[in-house]
Amino acid sequence: xxxxxxxxxxxxxxxxxxxxxxxxxxxxxxxxxxxxxxxxxxxxxxxxxxxxxxxxxxxxxxxxxxxxxxxxxxxxxxxxxxxxxxxxxxxxxxxxxxxxxxxxxxxxxxx
Length: 111
Description:
Elements: H1 9-18, E1 24-31, E2 34-41, H2 45-48, E3 90-92, E4 97-99, H3 104-110
Antiparallel strand pairs: 1-2, 3-4
């Protein structure tokens, strides 16, 4: 973030929290093994999330358009579900980020 290496999810949450709303920040990341630079403007999360108990605002309203009808589900053949290894991913709706520790194996895979 702005040239500072991020070592943990806790660190990036702290850095975002300490950055004033409206500030433009730069993130350098890897997407599909390719370097990517993105610039984002941080919003005031007190104005972004206004549900009761979290802010003083009571006029928060969201409208979701109706979904088109779903096609019928096709018949699925029986199959054996393989064993799955679970990786813990930390996510925060407030920051909009998903952060996962980079294991040596993932580091080697992504280069």
